[in-house]
Amino acid sequence: MYDRIVVAVDSSAEAAHAARTGFVLAQALSVPIDVVTVLEASILDALRSGAGRDRLRSDREQLLADIETQAEDVRISSTLLEGRPADRIVEFALDSGTNPLVVLGRQGRSSVSRRLLGGVTEGVLERGDIPVLVDPGPGEDESDFDPSRILVPTDGSENADIALPHVAALASQFDASVTVLSVVDLQRAGGVFNAGGLDGEFIEALESRAETATEAAAETVQATEPNLSVESMVRRSKDFEGVSGAICETAAAENVDLVVMGSHGRSNVRRQLLGSVTSTVLRSIDVPTLVVPRSQS
To answer: How far apart are CA 205 and CA 275, in angstroms?
Structure first.
């Protein structure tokens, strides 16, 4: 599935944890790993003295060297890049292998504790050229990446189902079980001002379509890797959190430790850089999430 792992780092704790996740993946998949860090051109331009630029480059080279020392039993190389971080990371990854996987930390929170996607992470995702694993950083137990239960949301669309080959490959490699989830969003189906509720037959039709989507996706994963444990699940969402809220709630309730999803679903039009459901999940969920772009189809 992947022939190279590319991890982009800075000096944050989230990036350090993402690097550890990358090491685990590289070792499990028996592929090389590249660790990169990017010096923004604007920062270099702002430093008037050559000595200041040299000191900054030296600091980043030391960061790469320190991270390299943490890698065990993997083929690793490190590279200092310059330019616009999101563009340089994607360009490097595409040049490094035929089927690379980028691993990034999610980064940061706002002053009101709402989770944010770091600007670099969001920029790489919005390029939509390459699968990206977003690591939310160390949890309470600070355990390393070792997925035993994988959740894959689907709405039955081609955009959503491009994630299925990635699910099958990772579940097989890590001997993980798979849960295929479809969410029936009653709030969206009925409209914001729907005070009378939804007709029972209409809800049944929605749930039937969701069951068909999950069963088809589960069969696809099972056909790819017959020895996997695969189940399908349908959940209702009645509040304003919608599909993304139901995905995060299911992940927590089912002790999921990896989510794999397409960058867009049925409702996301071509002009959108990153689907609204995927974007919200990335900001809210507490487990690593692999986002597979539409270009993978």
So the answer is: 25
